[in-house]
Amino acid sequence: MRVLFLIFYYILQWTWGLPQNLAGLAVRVFCRGSAAGFYKGAAVKNWTRKDGSMALGMFIFMCPDYGPKEREYVLAHEYGHTLQSIILGPLFLPVIGLPSILWASLPSCRKYRQTRNVSYYRFYPEAWANVLGKAGVKNEAGTAGNNVRPAKKVKQTVKKAEGSRDAERDS
């Protein structure tokens, strides 16, 4: 069953999701970092950027500063973005990619999140990626188990991480 899933995953990524996969491949080839293997079929690379992680098509780019539990959560989240790529195909970049990048990087969005105590993961592309990522982990393992952190702990971890990341950016 897993092999069949991976065959469909790759076929859909490289046909329906071609634009973001080409962009992801270019980033993978030209950005600094080290290959970290695969996560449920998605190619993972640890990159040297310390301001976050992202996914383009079937390519996940991970910030190296996460602890093991945070890393697993972020991998599941970014994997959710790879599933969004399959669902939306060529609409992924304008519907998910651009809004997500703006939500993460615009100073006004960071200030909004900080002053109103709004989680980064509350915005629709991120919330949906969490749902899909958790479902992907649950479907593969039969249970979410230790692969995805409980929502309460996630909110605490995200709040803590956002606070330190936003403080670093603002200084």
Topology (SSEs and partners):
Elements: H1 2-14, H2 18-30, E1 33-39, E2 42-47, E3 54-56, E4 59-62, H3 68-88, H4 92-105, H5 107-115, H6 124-141, H7 151-170
Parallel strand pairs: 2-4
Antiparallel strand pairs: 1-2, 3-4
Helix pairs in contact: 3-4, 3-6
Radius of gyration: 15 Å
Which structural class fits the helix and strand makeup? alpha+beta
SSE string: HHEEEEHHHHH
Beta strand count: 4
Segments where pLDDT lies below 50 for 5+ residues? Answer: 139-158
Number of helices: 7
Morphology? globular
Count of the separate structural domains: 1
Structure notes:
The chain is α+β, with helices and mostly antiparallel strands and 171 residues long. The chain has one domain (2-165). 63% of the residues lie in helices and 12% in strands. It has 7 helices and 4 strands. It has helices at 2-14, 18-30, 68-88, 92-105, 107-115, 124-141, 151-170, and strands at residues 33-39, 42-47, 54-56, 59-62. The chain has a 4-stranded mixed β-sheet with strand order 1-2-4-3. Strand 1 (33-39) and strand 2 form a beta hairpin. Helix 3 packs antiparallel against helix 4 (92-105) and helix 3 (68-88) crosses helix 6 (124-141). The chain is globular and about 45 Å long. The model is unreliable at 139-158 (pLDDT under 50).
What is this entry, summarized?
This protein is an alpha+beta fold and 171 residues long.
